[in-house]
Write a structure and sequence with these properties.
There is one protein chain. The termini are far apart. The strands form 2 sheets. The chain has a 5-stranded antiparallel beta sheet. It has a two-stranded antiparallel sheet with strand order 1-2. The protein has a domain of about 100 residues: Beta-Lactamase (2-Layer Sandwich), CATH 3.30.450. Helix content is about 15%, strand content about 30%. By secondary structure, it is an alpha+beta fold. About 10% of the residues are buried.
């Protein structure tokens, strides 16, 4: 009988405290560094509409302080838009939307704000992620770039 080696598609955790995922494992430090390296603002709001997390991406569009943690998300938006926040959250919770997107002009920049429901393996709503990105430079992209150009020609 020949022993078949387990496929190497899963990198098993080797350190105590690693978080195992279906597709690999990461340390807490790696998870936080990855989330902070993304060029987007990320905020997580739980089932009770309470802000539980935000990343510390360089150059955040909407700067946050730790004081926001534990606050109702409605308190983090201008009063004139709270009814929209509530409608989006209700639609995401009830499955009427798979996402919601808005874009605004702010300080001569175009800002794209998206909301996504977060569901567990059983499909139950466990929260919402808000992803905000400055898309001004993305909108200027023309043509193709298939290879990395080390020197920019102007």
């Amino acid at each position: 009988m020949v022993d078949k080696e387990k496929p190497k598609s899963f990198y098993p955790s080797t350190l105590e405290g690693d978080v195992d995922f279906e597709t690999g494992s990461l340390t807490r430090e790696e998870i936080e560094a990855i989330l902070n390296a993304l060029p987007v603002d990320i905020s997580f709001v739980d089932t009770e509409d309470t802000v539980r997390y935000f990343n510390k991406a360089e150059g955040r569009v909407f700067p946050r302080t730790k004081a926001v943690i534990g606050r109702k998300v409605q308190q983090c938006h201008p009063p004139k838009s709270v009814h929209i926040v509530n409608q989006v959250l209700d639609d995401l919770k009830k499955g009427r939307r798979k996402s919601a997107g808005f874009w605004i002009d702010m300080n001569q920049r175009k800002v794209y704000i998206q909301y996504f429901p977060v569901r567990n393996q059983e499909g139950e709503y466990i929260g919402c992620i808000e992803v905000t990105q400055d898309i001004t430079d993305i909108q200027k992209i023309k043509g193709e770039r298939r290879l990395l150009n080390e020197v920019q020609h102007i």
